[in-house]
Specification:
Blueprint (H helix, E strand, L loop, with lengths): L18 E6 L5 E7 L2 E8 L5 E4 L5 E4 L2 E9 L3 E9 L3 E3 L11 E5 L9 E4 L4 E6 L2 E4 L5 E2 L5 E9 L4 E6 L2 H5 L18 E4 L1 H4 L5 H11 L9 E4 L16 H6 L8 H10 L4 E7 L5 H8 L2 E2 L2 E2 L1 E2 L3 E2 L5 H17 L4 E5 L1 H14 L5 H19 L4 E4 L13 E3 L8 H13 L9 E3 L9 H14 L3 E3 L8 H10 L6 E2 L22 H9 L9 E8 L2 E9 L7 E4 L10 E6 L4 E7 L1 E4 L7 E8 L6 E5 L10 E7 L2 E7 L5 E7 L4 E5 L3 E6 L3 E7 L4 E8 L1
Parallel strand pairs: 9-29, 16-17, 16-27, 17-18, 18-23, 23-24, 24-25, 25-26
Antiparallel strand pairs: 1-2, 2-3, 3-7, 4-6, 5-6, 6-15, 7-14, 8-10, 9-28, 10-11, 11-15, 12-14, 13-14, 19-20, 21-22, 29-30, 30-35, 31-34, 32-33, 32-35, 36-39, 37-38, 38-43, 39-42, 40-43, 41-42
Helix pairs in contact: 3-5, 7-9, 8-9, 10-11, 11-12
Length: about 700
Amino acid sequence: MKKNHIYPVLDIPPVAQAEVSKEYNASGEAIYILNYGGRDIVKIKIMSHEETEIRIHSDGSMQSSPLIQQFYLTSRKPVHAVVTLHMRKDALCLKSQRAKNGQAIHAQSGGPLIYGANGYYGMWEDLMLEWYGATWHWIDERSTRHEDGSTSAAFEMDIDNRAFYLLLRPRYYSQHLGYKYFSPWKRQPNGKGISGWCSWEAYHRDVTEENVADAAKLMSELAPYGLEYIQLDDGFQQFLIPPEKDGKVYESWLTTNEKFPGGHERITGSIRDQGLVPAIWTNAIITNEAAADTGLCMKENGKAFKGYCIEYILDCSEEILEKHVLPYYEGLRKHGYEYFKTDAIRHLCLDGLQESVRRGLLTDEEADKRFRGFMECVRKGIGEEAYLLSCWGILTQSVGLADAFRVGTDANEEWEHIHMQITESARCFFAHRILFTIDPDHICARTELEWARMLLSFVSLTGGLYMLSDPLECYDEPRMQIIRKTLPSLEVYTGETGPIDYSTPAFCWSENPELTPEEISDFISNTGEARFGTFWATHFRKDDRSWTVVMRTALQQLASESIFFKDIGLDPDCRYAAYDFWEDRFLGVVEASMELRELPIGHVQVCALTPVSESAPTLISSNRHVSMDAVSVTACKTVKGSLLLKLHGVAGESFTYFIYSEKPCRVASDRPFSVEVVDGVLYRVTVTFDIEAAEIVVKQV
C-alpha cells in the first residue's frame, strides 16, 4: 500500500477522513500511517513479518456527519505492535467514557498517560482518537512535548485475528458533543488557575468601598499562598440602567453609586495597593422602563416587555451593542479590571431572547445570533487577555469566548448548596479546561468546618474557580488553615470525556428547611445508593515524579471500602506509598488495592498514591498543599540514588515534606531544617523558609 497523494498541511482541521498508507522499514516491518489534515497522526509499527490487514476508506467511515471513521487491523497470527499518536499542539489522554455512579471521576495535570485510558484528544484539532479490541499499555508515563510544539504518546499492543480497531472523531466537542462554536484552532479558553475573594455572599448589594479595601487588606495575607483576585460583585452600579430615559447603558456601570465615592479608580487602587488583581461583576439587565421603550429593548405591540429575572430584554442588535454595551466593557477594562464575571446572561438567552422567539418576534437563528453577538461584544470590550466568566449554566453561545462557566445556581453555606456545587461540577467535568473551566460558584468557608474542608479540597484538586465569599470576621484560624492548605486552585484538566449523563439527576431543591443533610442528600439523588460525584482521582506528572490523589467527598455517608488500582487509572502491578493528607498519616505501601475509611456526611478523605522503588527515595507528600504537593515543589529529580527537590515556600513559614525510602538516607538542605524518621522508612523533613526558595537533597547510604 503506497501513498498516492500528499495532502497539504491544513491550518484548519478538516471534517474529513484520514488517509491510510503502508510502508516498510529497513528491517521489513510494516508501518501503517494515518494522515489527517496533511499530518501523520497515527503510526502503527508491526514488530514482526507476519501478514496483517487493515480496512480503510469507505469500509471504515460509519457516519458522515458528525464524521466517525473506523479502522480495523487484524492478523492471522499473534503479533506485537507499537502505536504512536501525534497531535499538532497540546494533547490529553482521556478515558473515552464518563464515570458511572460510584466510579472515580478522572482528572489530570502535567500530561499523564493514565493506565487504561483508551483515548487521546488533540486540543488544537478537536480530534478524538479511541481504540478497542487489543491488550495494550502505555510505553511512557506522560505525553512527550516536541520542539515544534507538537505532542505525542505511544503504546504497545498485542493483536491477533480479533480486530484491533481505532476510531477517529474529527470536531469531537464541536460536532459530536454539540458545541458548535468551539473552534480551538482560533481560540482556546485561558486555562490558568483562579483563586480569589468575591463580595457577594459577604455583603450582597450593601457592599461599600470600605468593604472592598478591607477585604483586599485581609486577603493579601493569603497572596503568598496563591490568592490573586478581589472580585467586586453587585452593588457598585447605578440603580437605574440606563440612568436616564435617553441615557446609555454604560453610564450606569462606569459611574459608581454613593457607596463608592472614589469611583472605579479608588476600587482598583485599593486592591492593587495590596498586591492583588481587581475583578468585577457585570450584568445584562435593563431596569429603566422609560429607556427600554426607546428602542433599547425588545418590543411587542410597540411596548417593551419583561423576561424572567432579566427585567427588560436588551435588543442585542449590532447597533445597540456597539452604542450601549461595548463602551461599558471597554471602560471597565481601562479602569484596570482583569477578571470579568458576566451575570444573568442565562436569563438574557433563555428567558429574554428565547422569550422573544416564543412570542414570534425572533427566529431561533436570530436569537442565537444576537446572544452570540452580545458575548462577542463583551470579549471585544475586555480584550483577549482579560479573564471572562460566563454566568450561569452551560451556554453554547459562550463557548470560545468565555474562559469559565458557572455551572450551577447561586451557592451559599447551606448543605444542599454545597452538594449542588460538587454534583454539578461532576456532571459537567467532561468539558473542564477544554471548553471552559468549571466555576462551582463562590465558596462559603463559614459553613460547617468539615463541609468547608470538603468543598475547598474539592475545588482545589479539580481545578475549579476558587472564589471565597464570606464576611471578613468569618475567617477564623481553623478556616484560614484549611484555606492556606488548599490555595491555589490548580490547573487541572478533565481526564475523561463524553456527554453529560442526563440520566443522572441535576441538583434539585428540597424546599424544606427542616430536613437533615442526610435527608437532603437522599432527596437530591433520588436514592440512597447514588454516589455520583463522591469519588475522584487526579493524576499528576511533574519532572521525575508521578502520583495520584484519590479524593472521596461524602455527599452522603460513605462506608469503608476497598478500591482497586486498575479502576482508578493505576497500574495494579506497581507498589504505591499511601498518605492521608488531612489525617497526616502514612498508610504504608499498598499493592493492587487499598482500604478507604468510613466518612460521615460532609467529610472528605484525600490520599496520595505514589509508586515507589528500592533504587531511590520518593517524595510522597507534604503538608503545604492538598495536592501533596503540586505547588511548593518546583522541581523533583532522581539522580543516582538521590532525590533532589527545589522548593518555593512562604517566607517565615515551615513546611514538612514526607519522603519514603527502604534504605537509610542522609538529608541536606540549604535552609534550616529538621528530620524525623518514622518506622525506618518515612523521613519527615521540615524546612523553615527564611526566604522563599529552598533545596533538599536526600541520598541513600
